Amino acid sequence: MDSHRRVEFALQRNRQNIGRRYIEVFRCKREEYYTAVAQEVSSSKFSSSPRRTGPPSRSKPSADGSKDDHVVYTGILRMRGLPFSAGKEEIIDFFKEFELTEDMVHLVVNPDGRPSGEAFVEFRNAEDSKEAMKNDRMTLGSRYIELFPSHMKEMDEAIVRERL
């Protein structure tokens, strides 16, 4: 099996369980992979405490709830961890202090048409999306929601992927 097919096979395991653990599988750049491996090796050599497993670290919220300064806000946020039953109305309510309409919310579905647990939200401007980051890791229903600054290309790719 060639490496491209192996990658596609692995990506099909996204959002499934290994035993009782829920897993996420995603593409990453080669540099991100090497960074994650280096972090794992160095933490196992120098620490006996539990280690963070998962993707390479991303920007963490600061004390005021905003992401690190190097993040560029474009007015688009990606939501991850949505309840599969969540619709556009629930997302609009999640960001109730912002003036959102249904056409500004884009639910991502799997190729089989089922909700993926992700959505993209277009805010009126970059400042609103930055302000909306205060909702990062808040709950919608019984699920905590992760927010990530995004951009039009990522949103378009996710929406096109759902139509394939």
UniProtKB/TrEMBL annotation:
<dbReference type="InterPro" id="IPR050666">
    <property type="entry name" value="ESRP"/>
</dbReference>
<protein>
    <recommendedName>
        <fullName>RRM domain-containing protein</fullName>
    </recommendedName>
</protein>
<keyword id="KW-0677">Repeat</keyword>
<feature type="domain" description="RRM">
    <location>
        <begin position="75"/>
        <end position="152"/>
    </location>
</feature>
<keyword id="KW-0694">RNA-binding</keyword>
<dbReference type="GO" id="GO:0003723">
    <property type="term" value="F:RNA binding"/>
</dbReference>
<dbReference type="InterPro" id="IPR012677">
    <property type="entry name" value="Nucleotide-bd_a/b_plait_sf"/>
</dbReference>
<dbReference type="InterPro" id="IPR000504">
    <property type="entry name" value="RRM_dom"/>
</dbReference>
<dbReference type="Pfam" id="PF00076">
    <property type="entry name" value="RRM_1"/>
</dbReference>
<feature type="compositionally biased region" description="Low complexity">
    <location>
        <begin position="42"/>
        <end position="62"/>
    </location>
</feature>
<dbReference type="InterPro" id="IPR035979">
    <property type="entry name" value="RBD_domain_sf"/>
</dbReference>
<feature type="region of interest" description="Disordered">
    <location>
        <begin position="40"/>
        <end position="68"/>
    </location>
</feature>
